[in-house]
């Protein structure tokens, strides 16, 4: 077993959940964890009450890269520095301040949180070089459960299986097509493609992103069926990545999302600058 993977198995999910989440995201599965959270976004867009709010703010439509970066950076600050760290505390405060401006139901909050828990597990199960262990799953779950407490969420399921049942039930009841679903999804797809290919290749790339969406999700986003060939090519490509990952060593230095250079913040950023509204930096 690879060194960091072996280290994970000696940890206790109840007390070491922050370290488990950090090692998974920054050493063991950095590429897979980031991709899984990107695709977790699409599941939230399939819920009209969520997509309508995102469309109404105008951020995903007019400034999709900034909206994406802000979300990723706030979560990265919490993960990479720890929930109780100064930077983690500031990031949570900033996130709660943004959310507090909108009328968001507790159920919608719980569902979004559940996608951050279960989509990484499902992605790694399907596309990773190995599935997560029970220790890793439980640690990831406990860490997001603690984040949910700091977000003041109510009625959070306290067991992994119970929260997954909530996730599945919520999707069955709330996935429904709405125009705002497709608008936000299209903007996000173009944004993701822009990370890898020039704009003139977007048309070729979109079907391969569509191929990674399950049927209930595609229907709720108003996306046509995808050919079996494109699904096969996509699976083979991800399988090749998993094979290369399996025979490669884990990065000795952590892969930190917060350290990545971004056109949104060419000179770096302050946590209090992140988000959908301007705010004077507090200097904390």
UniProtKB/TrEMBL annotation:
Q: Which residues form the ER-bound oxygenase mpaB/mpaB'/Rubber oxygenase catalytic domain?
A: 45-233
Superkingdom, taxonomy of origin: Bacteria
**What name has this protein been given in UniProt?**
Oxygenase MpaB family protein
Its lineage opens with: Bacteria, Pseudomonadati, Bacteroidota, Cytophagia, Cytophagales
């Amino acid at each position: 077993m690879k060194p960091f993977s072996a280290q994970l198995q000696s940890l206790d999910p109840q007390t070491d959940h922050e370290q488990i989440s950090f090692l998974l995201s920054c050493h063991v599965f950095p590429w897979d964890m980031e991709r899984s959270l990107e695709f977790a976004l699409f599941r939230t867009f399939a819920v009209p009450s969520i997509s309508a709010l995102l469309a109404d703010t105008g951020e995903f439509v007019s400034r999709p890269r900034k909206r994406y970066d802000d979300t990723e950076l706030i979560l990265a600050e919490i993960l990479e520095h720890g929930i109780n760290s100064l930077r983690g505390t500031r990031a949570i405060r900033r996130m709660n301040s943004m959310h507090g401006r909108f009328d968001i139901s507790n159920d919608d909050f719980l569902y979004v949180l559940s996608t951050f828990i279960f989509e990484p597990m499902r992605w790694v199960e399907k596309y990773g070089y190995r599935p997560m262990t029970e220790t890793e799953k439980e640690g990831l779950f406990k860490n997001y459960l603690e984040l949910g407490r700091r977000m003041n969420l109510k009625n959070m399921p306290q067991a992994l299986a119970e929260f997954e049942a909530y996730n599945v039930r919520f999707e069955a009841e709330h996935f429904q097509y709405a125009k705002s679903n497709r608008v936000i999804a299209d903007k996000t797809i173009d944004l993701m493609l822009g990370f890898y290919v020039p704009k003139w290749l977007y048309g070729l790339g979109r079907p391969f992103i569509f191929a990674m969406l399950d049927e209930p999700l595609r229907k709720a986003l108003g996306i046509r069926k995808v050919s079996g060939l494109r699904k096969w090519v996509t699976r083979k490509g991800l399988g090749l990545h998993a094979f290369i990952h399996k025979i490669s060593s884990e990065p000795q230095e952590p892969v930190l999302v917060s350290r990545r250079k971004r056109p949104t913040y060419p000179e770096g950023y302050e946590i209090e600058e992140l988000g959908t509204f301007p705010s004077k930096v507090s200097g904390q």
